[in-house]
Design goal:
Length: 98
């Protein structure tokens, strides 16, 4: 037969949403931790989410994101330079020989 559905009271749902908002873990990680389907948690978030409960981004996370952004900008600049070189090479080698 099918599985028994678990029923949670409103207070538990609200506390769970508040807990999620205070964490830096993904919804999937928290769902696994609490043994609750991630889809159920997403529904609770849509219903009970209070934005004033969410923490501001930590300084450590901001530094990490800035580092990643700089790294990506550097990679993009490198690729743009490589593309310019390839374009020049194509132009040179596509000229008809005399």
């Amino acid at each position: 037969m099918g599985e028994q559905r678990q029923h949670y009271n409103e207070e538990f749902k609200q506390r769970t949403v508040k807990y999620i908002q205070e964490q830096t873990k993904s919804i999937e990680d928290i769902a696994q931790e609490l043994s609750i389907p991630a889809g159920t948690i997403r529904q609770w978030l849509a219903k009970y989410r209070q934005f004033e409960s969410e923490p501001l981004a930590s300084a450590e996370r901001v530094r990490e994101l800035e580092r990643l952004l700089k790294e990506k900008d550097r990679r993009i600049a490198d690729m743009e330079e490589e593309l310019a070189i390839v374009k020049k090479a194509v132009h040179i080698f596509s000229k008809p020989r005399n």
